[in-house]
Design goal:
The complex is a heterodimer of chains A (about 350) and B (about 625). Chain A is of the alpha+beta class. Chain A is built from ten helices and nine strands. In chain A, a hairpin with a 4-residue loop joins strand 5 (about 235-240) and strand 6. Chain A is elongated. Chain B has a single domain (about 1-535), classed as Cytochrome C Oxidase, Chain A (Up-down Bundle), CATH 1.20.210.10. Chain B has a two-stranded antiparallel sheet. The chains are: A alpha+beta (about 350), B mainly alpha (about 625).
């Protein structure tokens, strides 16, 4: 019944609109207002452009200033400071161009609206003007390019030797992290060795794997360079940590990397943002299927001492899954047991 | 001149057969070889797709703006894609996003815009009887039609249409295990696109041939309207880039169906390791964007060409810097082929490549800037008549500025790290290419409707349509910049899983409401369009007092366009408000010898040549 009355209502409204439209058409035929150039509606449209310009700018500035802290999220990495500086410099330059060109566009439209007593200026070309607005943008753009190149090369430079290395593996639909353990070397992996438990496809013929550990959260030390080794095992994913200004695709078959220096601990960010529940997060930004919007990884940034303590408390993956010792070649069994801190007793118990 | 010879032959042909043509309904309206009919076919198909593509965006905007809302009422349309709890299925959300992109970019803004206006205007504005090959032209439309049918069918299959994003990056698009849309839906997508590419190539070859060979007497390249220059360069870009997409799609088809490993390597999915080794997903991205980036200009250049024409006509002023406009378009054409990898700064490709592509990308901003300044100078000291077409053209310039400037952010690799794949990108390309090209298309329809259908559209409705659309589009896409700077990723079904993306709930609702409003306003246009075809006021011969040749044809030009001889051309198309002239416009076919009062110094010398050639 409600559906029916809505339908009738819509029909009536449309009928009324149609009637108004017909009436207006007939009126304009009688008044011949369509045949005049630059009639009343020309003035109205010209005015509306000015109104749009003024209201648009008021709205733009009001919203941009009022909500600055909402969209400008805090920076928590060293390179984030310089990429954001570049961002805001570009914003300054383009902002000025934006304001000037939009004002000219709408002001000219208003100022030079049709007037039967006036005729337009025949002004087909002027090479000097063309040169000016070729060369000036070229110079401005060159400086942006040069600045951009400097920043880009700095951000993308090889990671320092002393970087903490962490592997991030993306799969449908979560992230897994792996630390190299005490030997500071990530062990080898092979996608053919992946199974429900061995999600990384750890290759146990490589002795570097034995002490690798895979915690549920990503912990990082403040003030030290960290290198993410990023890979995916099914489809494309992309590691995105908004507060660190960090993004890099995870590509099956082609490991990628991104290094940075976190500058604020989670605790410090909680104070800065005034949000006691603040947490760093990693999200996926390359569409990867049904659960694309839910690939959340929690990141904890700590003081270096706390970080080292946390690291020393982590159990190697192999010691949590000792049944994988069978995959270790016989001559390396002993090394594996020592490195992964598996005690014979635990094995026997199983 | 070869072109004249061909035209003369055609003239004879038409005179011989003028009274023998008895078109029946099928040859006149369906399998027509007349470029005007084919253009209208493209237009109507484009409008159909625009409604579907736009409608899809409303559904996913509902989800984004009102994540809590009950969408049970959509079940009659979407069936099982509404979950039992009355929500949109997340995978169908991705399908909607994907199909919205595909439809809008290819079917509406490539076929609907370029297909319509290249077909309609090229013969009329260069003074030709028809396209070089009417038959190929007809094939071009029917390939597009079949491609449309295949894509349309894919919307209704059980596993859903393709849903890996309009860029269809493998491995997601290659593996049916990865998502249901990568099954039959993806196959149909690839088939449809292959047909679409054939259609584009058939059309493009025709446009280029026609422009080079069939120009009327006197119509040198230096006298071509900017619309024709734009269509010409668009066709060249399409001809060079679309085959690469075909190649990319073909390799993807091999990977999907014949076990090859062009794009696949090291994959463990759905509980098993796949045998594929040695492929590279990055390869696909390179191939895709080798088309994908030029595609942006395939969409944009015709719109800019149309705008140049409309702004000059309605400012009653010559377009400022005709030569500079052509050089800019040439520059954009060439550069559009060497910037593709700026879509891939964080794809894992070598950062050094990133720096090269950043350099080239920012260079392409220079010709774009020149175009904007030239538009502004054309308006300066004009005598502007706000026809609906003019309003949409001014709107286009505004969008082109707003969206173009944000290109300087995302084209700068260091800034792009943060902005890549966020709503900032969505805002950027929807303004600069989506909305700008869409406005170009609407401007073109309003401007050439009188020629197409012999009747006028209602201008008041046009004004209302413009103002709601113009304000509405800014309300939809401007807020997305803020959302993007805050890092919100695109193609997200919902933002509730992340603390970082918990803000902007209100703004997202606002955007959705604005989108519904803007979409609603398009029905004003649809009414105006279809009503005016049948009941509009009869159009005068040259309603906008324009200079180009199409306005010298009869009100309803028949097959062959001009009943008698094709007019020859004596001047460039922008003699508006020439000092000394009686009227504020002098059409291209008026000889200089007839306008001694307004001829410029260098033109007086051509007057003699004209007289000599007239005698021979």
């Amino acid at each position: 019944m409600i559906g029916f009355s809505i339908a009738v209502g819509v029909f009536l409204i449309l009928a009324i609109l149609l009637l108004i439209f017909r009436l207006h058409t007939l009126m304009s035929v009688v008044k011949k207002s369509d045949e005049k150039v630059g009639s009343g509606s020309n003035k109205t449209n010209a005015m509306l452009f000015m109104v749009f310009l003024v209201l648009g700018f008021i709205l733009l500035f009001w919203y941009s200033i009022k909500n600055f802290d909402v969209y400008q999220i805090p920076i928590a990495s060293e390179h984030g400071v310089i990429t954001d500086r570049l961002f805001w410099i570009t914003m300054g330059i383009t902002g000025v161009v934006f304001i000037i060109t939009q004002i000219l566009l709408f002001y000219f439209s208003y100022k030079y609206q049709h007037n039967p007593d006036r005729s337009a200026l025949f002004f087909p070309e002027n090479n000097k003007l063309e040169m000016i607005w070729t060369i000036v943008p070229a110079i401005v753009l060159t400086s942006l390019v040069v600045y951009g190149l400097v920043v880009w090369n700095k951000v993308m430079a090889p990671a320092p030797q002393n970087s903490e290395v962490v592997e991030i593996l993306g799969y449908q639909f979560a992230w897994k992290v792996r630390y190299p353990g005490k030997d500071e070397t990530l062990g080898a992996y092979d996608f053919r060795k992946v199974d429900a438990t061995n999600e990384f496809g750890l290759d146990f013929s490589d002795r570097a794997t034995y002490d690798d550990f895979t915690p549920r959260e990503l912990h990082l030390p403040k003030g030290q360079p960290v290198e993410f080794r990023i890979r995916a095992r099914d489809v494309l994913h992309s590691v995105f940590a908004p507060h660190f200004r960090l993004k890099m695709d995870a590509v099956p078959g082609m490991p990628t990397r991104f290094w940075f220096v976190p500058t604020k601990t989670t605790a410090e960010m909680r104070i800065e943002t005034g949000n006691p529940d603040f947490n760093y997060e990693i999200a996926c930004t390359e569409v990867c299927g049904r659960g694309h919007f839910s690939m959340r990884l929690l990141v904890v940034v700590e003081e270096p001492e706390a970080y080292e303590k946390w690291k020393s408390e982590q159990e190697p993956w192999l010691s949590k899954n000792p049944e994988y010792l069978t995959q270790v070649p016989d001559n390396l069994k002993e090394v594996a047991m020592i490195k992964s801190q598996i005690e014979t007793t635990t094995l026997n118990r199983r | 001149m070869a072109s004249t010879a061909v035209n003369e032959q055609l003239d004879d042909h038409i005179e011989d057969h003028a009274h023998e043509h008895h078109d029946n309904f099928i040859t006149k309206y369906i399998f027509s070889t007349d470029h005007k009919t084919i253009a209208k076919q493209y237009l109507i198909t484009g409008i159909f797709w625009a409604i579907i593509g736009g409608g899809m965006s409303l559904v996913f905007r509902l989800q984004l703006g009102f994540p809590e809302a009950q969408l049970e009422w959509l079940r009659p349309f979407l069936g099982k894609w509404i979950t039992t709890s009355g929500k949109l299925d997340p995978e169908f959300y991705l399908a909607l996003v994907t199909m919205h992109g595909t439809i809008m970019v290819f079917f509406v803004l490539t076929a609907g815009l370029s297909g319509t206006f290249s077909n309609y205007l090229i013969p009329l504005q260069i003074g030709a009887r028809d396209m070089a090959s009417g038959f190929m032209n007809m094939l071009s439309y029917w390939f597009f039609f079949v491609s449309s049918v295949v894509m349309f069918i894919s919307l209704f299959i059980e596993t859903g249409p393709a849903s890996g994003g309009w860029v269809i990056y493998p491995p997601l698009s290659a593996l049916p295990q990865a998502m249901s849309g990568s099954g039959l839906g993806m196959t149909l997508w690839l088939v449809s696109m292959a047909l679409f590419i054939v259609s584009t190539l058939l059309g493009g070859i025709n446009y280029i041939t026609t422009i080079i060979n069939l120009r009327t007497k006197g119509m040198s390249f230096a006298k071509l309207p900017l619309t024709i220059w734009a269509f010409f360069l668009t066709a060249v870009i399409g001809l060079l880039s679309f085959p690469v997409l075909l190649g990319a799609a073909l390799l993807l088809i091999f990977d999907r169906s014949f076990g090859t490993s062009f794009y696949l390597s090291d994959i463990y999915i759905a509980g098993e390791a796949l045998p594929n080794m040695g492929g590279s997903p990055i390869l696909f991205q390179h191939l895709f964007w080798f088309l994908g980036h030029p595609e942006v200009y395939i969409v944009l250049l015709p719109a800019l060409g149309i705008t140049s024409e409309i702004i000059a006509t309605n400012s009653r002023k010559p377009i400022f810097g005709y030569k500079a406009m052509i050089i800019s378009m040439l520059g954009i054409t060439v550069l559009s082929f060497v910037v593709w990898a700026h879509h891939m700064f964080v794809s894992g490709m070598n950062p050094f490549l990133g720096s090269i592509f950043m350099l080239l990308t920012l260079i392409i901003a220079v010709p774009s800037a020149v175009k904007v300044f030239n538009y502004l100078t054309t308006l300066w000291k004009g005598n502007i008549v706000f026809t609906p077409a003019m309003l949409f053209s001014i709107g286009l310039v505004s969008f082109f500025i707003s969206g173009g400037l944000t290109g300087l952010f995302v084209g700068n690799s260091a800034i792009d790290i943060q902005l890549h794949d966020t709503y900032f990108i969505v805002a950027h390309f929807h303004l600069v290419m989506g909305s700008a090209a869409f406005f170009g298309m609407l401007a073109g329809i309003y401007h050439w409707f009188p020629k197409m259908f012999g009747r006028m559209m209602d201008s008041k409705l046009g004004y209302i349509h413009f103002w709601i659309s113009f304000v509405g589009i800014y309300m939809v896409f401007f807020p997305m910049h803020y959302i993007g700077i805050a890092g919100f990723p695109r193609r997200y079904y919902s933002f509730t899983n992340f603390d970082a993306f918990s803000t902007f709930v209100d703004l997202n609702s606002f955007v959705s409401v604005a989108a519904i409003l803007t979409f609603g306003a398009q029905f004003i246009f649809l009414f105006n369009f279809f009503y005016s075809i049948f009941r509009g006021k009869k159009a005068p011969a040259n309603p906008w007092r324009s200079n180009t040749l199409e306005w010298t044809t009869p009100r309803n030009p028949g097959h062959g366009n001009w009943p008698g001889e094709i007019p020859s051309v004596h001047r460039w198309p922008y003699d508006y408000s020439k000092p000394g002239a009686k009227e504020d416009y002098i059409p291209q076919h008026i000889p200089l010898s007839e306008t001694p009062e307004s001829n410029l110094q260098h033109e007086t010398r051509f007057v003699k040549e004209e007289k000599v050639s007239a005698k021979t």
